[in-house]
Amino acid sequence: MITKFQVAYRNLLRKKMRTMLTIIGIALSAWVLVSLLGFNRGYEISLNKDIDNMGFQLMVMAKGCPYEAATLMLKGGTGLRYIKRDVVDEVMREPEVEQTTPFLMAAVFDPNKGESGGIAGYFGVEPKSFSAMKRSLKFRQGKWFTDENAYETVMGYEAAELEQREVGDMILMPEKNVQFKVVGILDRTGTQDDGTIFIPLKTAQKIFNQPDEITTIGIKLKSGADSARLEEKLYKLPDVQVVSLTQVKDTIMSLISTAKVMVLSIALIAILIAMVGVINTILASVWERFQEIGILKTIGAMPWDIFQLIWTETLILCTVGGILGVILALVLARVTDILIRSVLPYAPGGGLVVIDWKLVLVTLAAILGIGLLSGVYPAWKAGRIRPLEAIRGEVGR
Amino acid sequence: MKQNGIMIETKDLTKVYTRGNEEITSVNSVSFRIDKGDFVSIIGPSGSGKTTLINLLGCLDNPTSGELYLGSRAIFGKARRLSERELTKVRRETFGYIFQNFYLIPTLTVRENVLLPLTFYRKPDTEHEADKLLQILGMDHRQDHLPGQISGGEMQRVAIARAMVNKPEILLADEPTGNLDTKRSAEIVEVLQGLNKSTGLTVIMVTHNPGLARNANRMFEMRDGRLSLIERPQE
């Protein structure tokens, strides 16, 4: 016995180049689709991870644009305003607050960074409160600073790799010409912490000449505490603003959603083009085999048999194209990540494109659905071919 | 091998085509009958209507008027005509077709081409029919070849095997030797004669070659849409 699948498969092998080009078209649109859907998920997951890894839900900082401040906070930025260290005590007095940790962020120009120099960010932190809040941080080597006034540093994974430093090595802070001893290197976190250089808060205040000032206070709320109520109370403190990280996330996500709509539109256009390609290929193949299809009817095929035969060809094209597209997306996820990262104003750490088996199944189902839809018209046309017309060679009449 | 019983019967079967404003009567009031196991040939010049007649007999075309019966079943009767779907069923249950162009699927092997009809419709006891036919037709040694790798005569043998695999009652052959040389043509007609004699298959063959047509039990001539029996002296 020979099955309809075998007949359909062999038919596709007749015009190998045309079949291959159609499959490539489908594979490319599947690649775009799976990557973009993966980006939708990945971006949110990474952003959530970045925010969760901060260990706090609220930030208090000097008045200014809160979102700019928050983004700088996430990216490790420059030009920040300062608040007094005493604000920490006032914040701690609030009953909703479980823990606080103060930071002093600073940036110096490093002539050795990049081709023409760049900004190196330093985070002045209190090891005790900071590590208590950021429990996810693990050390690859060493530990936190020995003293709160020490000239010691803990480096993020990527910062240490970039500077090629091990525990015990010295590192020079450019511009200030101060040397630090590396006492700890963190494990990879997949967040901005990987690129950060941490120094003791008091040392940072001394070096940057801000003896009683900090840039930010991270606040961890007690379980079930009313965040809005606390925000309201904190706003009453002079010259400070409160940023909720949920707000930050929502704002970033809403900014990104515009980009997402655009890329999804591109994906839809790619899919439509692939769909037209499939219809064109199958229709051309039906017209080329007009007589043959008519003869199939004289040897016993019913219209539904012909419909199935042509539909199976479409299914084969879409299945192979879809699978290739998914493989392409998986293999090139890193490249897609880099490409997307290069065009986004802000991208969280970690993978931006997350492809899991559910997404793979959804994409394959979508491609197959679209393929089946594309195959309906050519298959219906083929099913309607009358044997006599085919024998007479009345193509397309 | 003529048997008792009527296989096909027509009454005033007529087919009129319209070309522009002109009406062309391709088959004009044809009434005749073919018995079970008969081997009938129809000759005639080009445009005489012989292909139209065989298409009407094979339920591939609808007559403009007249009646067609397969056994006692009315295909195109006075009261009722079968639908396209019913006609398709009749075609696959009753007929095997071979044409001047062999219409083999180029991507399937000889054996797969013969097996192809069974993919769509299968009568009981046809499991070994393909192998049997390939052997009878001397094509078993070529069964794994593609159509492009065999000669025209061999391709027509494969087409015959394909037409026969579902054990049809009637084999319709429209110019089966049209694309073959004299030697191969004689071989193909010999094959048809052999099948008619050995299996009792009813064969209707249209040809423009009177020499080949003489191999049939009965010979008809088609001229200007009218059919007439050619009387032959007793052999």
Offer a concise description of the structure.
Chain A is an alpha+beta fold. Helices cover 56% and strands 17% of the residues of chain A. With 235 residues, chain B is of the alpha/beta class.
Write the layout of secondary structure elements.
The complex is a heterodimer of chains A (397) and B (235).
Chain A (H helix, E strand, L loop, with lengths): L3 H11 L1 H39 L3 E5 L3 H10 L7 E2 L2 H6 L4 E14 L7 E8 L1 H7 L5 E4 L9 E4 L1 H7 L6 E4 L4 E9 L10 E4 H7 L5 E2 L1 E6 L5 H8 L5 E5 H44 L1 H9 L4 H29 L1 H11 L13 H27 L3 H6 L5
Parallel strand pairs in A: 4-9, 6-8
Antiparallel strand pairs in A: 1-11, 1-12, 2-10, 3-4, 3-11, 5-8, 6-9, 7-8
Helix pairs in contact in A: 1-11, 2-9, 2-11, 2-13, 9-13, 11-13
Chain B lengths: L5 E14 L2 E14 L3 E5 L6 H8 L7 E6 L2 E4 L7 H11 E5 L10 H11 L8 H8 L15 H13 L5 E5 L7 H18 L2 E5 L3 H4 L4 E6 L2 E5 L5
Parallel strand pairs in B: 3-8, 3-9, 6-7, 7-8
Antiparallel strand pairs in B: 1-2, 1-4, 4-5, 9-10
